[in-house]
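User: Please run a holo structure prediction.
Assistant: Happy to. Please share the sequence and the ligand.
User: Here you go; the ligand is pyridoxal-5'-phosphate.
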Amino acid sequence: MPSVPQRYLHGPGPSPVPESVLAALALPCIGHMDPQFMRIMNEIREMLQQVFQTENEMTLPCSGTGSAGAEMLMDNLVEPGDICLIGINGVFGQRLTEKARRAGGTVHNLTAPWGQVFDQDEVVAAIDELKPNIVMLVHAETSTGALQPFDRLGDAVHRHGGLLLMDCVTSLGGLRVKIDQWGVDGAYSGTQKCLSCPPGLAPVTLSERAMHKLNHRKTTVNSWYLDLRLVGNYWTGIRAYHHTAPVNMNYALHEALRIILDEGLENRFARHQQAHESLKSELTNRGYTYASDPQNSLPMLNLVNVPTEIEDEAAIRRRLLEEHHLEIGSGLGDLAGKCWRIGLMGHGAREECVQRIVTALDAVVPQ
Ligand SMILES: Cc1ncc(COP(=O)(O)O)c(C=O)c1O
């Protein structure tokens, strides 16, 4: 077996994985067509529906990381020539733009400075002007720590016959994600953030409206692997073999979802908020400042300015890892070298973790 150190994961993901989720990975591998695995698949879908707060029939874990989930939505729901309105206020909006283009969409971007979010009235005005087929925003921008409000967009998108899509990779399991109530037609996440499961699956959900578009496409879906009508047949339909599901990863997701629902969604969201407030107060007492907009900051991803007296921020992160086994994230894109990204995700959103982070920072950051 490989030799693996114990780490305290407080970067932008992966997050700490509870023992029982790791134990689920080590359960006996059974066949992906075994009736017992089908039962587990059904239970996963039901639990995912609860976590996504949706009744969508097409709710399943896509095999692959969050990026595979993004491509599953784009490849299935964007038809060549579709007008796509995509928000860019960080790295992940840029990636979505690229994916929509590759799927044949004609992309128009809404832009906001990194760290800021889009005013929903402005998004609605842009939708009314452009009448896009697809509108897509990142709910929790992991590169900037910004939380995008989503609750007032659905009606505007739908009155022009479009679909509202959401990246909730970092928010699902740590913040309210109300797919049905907000009128979101397609969303994807990843297992390694607030679901506290290793990376490897991308929970995806599609509304009836999205399924109607998919079922009436004029062109075939470019990707065979991610074609939801084929994958859906395995997960929800006639159970036809499509690809070999990553069986043990699905056991792990099953256990991670069970833990979330046992805790209760609202309790879990409150726990993330408490951990964030505690970290923020510990850090601000020590003179650190936050780089994210205080009105719209994520609890699970703390964007902290690197103190100006530190010349080599990478050396600090290296010492945290080597001397304290603690991982925090660097800034991404425009924020590289300027910020640290401190994650309090899933099982890592606890007071004990907050204290571990500040103790390690105190030890390595010159006072
Ligand atoms: C907001 C967001 N979207 C998409 C992704 C891509 O997910 P993955 O790295 O699991 O492919 C990430 C990963 O950090 C993310 O934070």
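The chain has two domains: 19-262, 265-364.
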